[in-house]
Amino acid sequence: MGNTHPGATSPFGMVSACAYSGAYPTGYGRYAKNTEGVPEEMFDRHQASGFTHFQQSGTGAIRKYYNYVRVTPMVQPLDALGESWELHDEVAEAGYYAATLDTGVRSEITVGAKVAVHRYTFPEHRSARVVIDLSCGGLAIDLGRTVPLRAQVESMGYGQAQGTVVMEGVPLSVYIEADTPGWRQMLWYDRRLIDGGTRLDFDSIRHTTLRPFGMLFMGSVRAGQTVEIRMGFSLRGHEQARRNLERECGRDSEPAFNVVRTRTRARWREHVGKVQVEGGTTARRTVFGTALYHSLIKPCVADDESPFWPNSGPYAFDVCTMWDIYKTQLPLLAAIAPERHTDILESLIRVCEEEGNFPIGYRMARGADRFFRQASALAHTALADAHALGRAGIDWSWALVHMVDDLRRMYGEDFFEHGVVHPITHTLDLAYAHHCTARVARSLNDRRLADDLERRGRQWVNAFDPATGLLRDSEFYEGGKWNYSFRLVHDMAARIALAGGDDAFIGMLDRFFGYGADPVKQPGQTPQPAEMAAGYALHRFEGLNNEPDMEAPWSYHWAGRPDKTAEIVQAALTWQFGTGPGGLPGNDDSGGLSSWYVWASLGLFPVAGQNLFLINAPAFGRSVLQAGDSEFVIETSGHRETPIGVDGLDRDPPVQYVQSATLNGEPLHTTHLSAADVHRGGRLHLKLGPEPSTWGHQLRPPSLS
């Protein structure tokens, strides 16, 4: 399960909106919480109790997440609020979601960057209503509900209302305009109307005292009559929410649905248009387009919206998590959305400044130190790459201060004192971060600091057992020492020597990827612990279902066997992705996995923190990457179209291998490019063939040693 949802989104927008069933993990769908095997169903149908805002995209093992401010069109009494109705005729487009409820109400939603607009078409009824529940949040699983701490709701008449709920320490404000001529508007509490009341205040809410509350608009409708609900959101109070609404929907009371939908569609067209591909089967093009779309939903970048510091500037949240996105998604955003990429990095620096450390994951919630068990010091890779590209808009001397300080926090203190830390993967993270920070320090002419950082960066070797060529025994986060052992370190030449040389290293990789091994049966629903343990004991590549494995196929490049990379990557592109439900081999993780698919299809892979791209056979005959103001063209000769997924079950598509390459007309004998080569634009031509060649066997990508 990719754990994505079909709701309305805007590129990097603060607001999303989708049908809400309470299912794991986005609030949309039918499935229960699950991390192993095929997920169990919570419901036997697609259903919704309304439409909520702020969903995650592709996250994994979470227990609760967002789904705030539920809007429910009803033709039933208020007592029925919370019931679910079957969904029919769903439509999902960029910036638009629609479905018909069992009640006969056609529901359409579109969003802008900070607004949502709902349009409901009712059957004839004398007492239709649109109910807004501000107490809603989280998921309908064990311990999955988000309970507001404080709240305030105010009805101002004339189709206007506002409210604030404090969720997970963050004040979320909404300003509402309702285009419902002649309808009454009323507050409600515990599913009972408060006739004549204009304001509700809750100073302290607990799980035991929570009762649902909100407001509603109610009146008679003719068959086919539509009503429109416009909602502006802010993390800085009602007034800013109102200004956000006016900015995107206008100051008058005219319907705004089509205006917002058209603008958001145009934004999506602009962003997705930054990558163009030619050829490919319909299914392959569909998966590619979907992957590119999913790569541009998160993180959310809400200008001037930080609830924690008063200054203006970008505020990025739903960085869920750096462990998921730093290798693939952030390099993609650096190319096709450079301004937003800079905003994200600037926001991360500000989080470090205000809250004490660079976050591994950062939600619309208090606390920058969540998810620290996943990894350490990952922002350093993205900052080093941005600095190498000469990105303006960042005070690099100030950024370096925070990069250095952050290296001593959490597991970094033990690494500083002992040169090794457990979980052992944090040793790799911290050594890599020291190397990346050293590059920035040296370019800023702080040679003494750079020398010290580089010396500590070489301590990645302490993580490995020379007797096995693998990582030392330790605890591992969502993985084991085999898949973590093939991460790309900054000195791959020394890494391969530690394993015993090219042949030994290739043999280890071949075993990991299952060359010559018997097929294995995938776990089904609710697998037994013994079955899962037997699977893990294979020490096998599990597919692209987790972050450590995303870069492992490219390890072959440093051993002089890019043809092996081609076999693994093209097998993944062919068999692990599809157009239907379950068309992703793992959690999409806020776009990290989808970004992998985009890069792999282009025949490139960014090596985060090293200002480097590796070259592989692409999935399309020709593609164009708009990197900033420049175009980087990847064209081929000898390319063959191949099917994917079930379309290719009748035959095994042939692997394509690079035979030779040119860059801007000049022979290219290396299997890599600098990031500057890609970002300045140019033309890479790859001659492909059905058999492995000697291209890339001699000249390896750069290593520190």
TrEMBL record:
GO terms for biological process: carbohydrate metabolic process; glycoprotein catabolic process. It comes from Paractinoplanes toevensis. It comes from the Bacteria. This is Glycoside hydrolase. GO terms for molecular function: carbohydrate binding; peptide-N4-(N-acetyl-beta-glucosaminyl)asparagine amidase activity. Pfam families: Glyco_hydro_92, Glyco_hydro_92N. InterPro entries: 6-hairpin_glycosidase_sf, GH-type_carb-bd, GH92_N, Glyco_hydro_92, PNGase. Residues 240-689 form the Glycosyl hydrolase family domain. Coiled coil: none annotated. GO terms for cellular component: cytosol. Residues 2-234 form the Glycosyl hydrolase family 92 N-terminal domain.
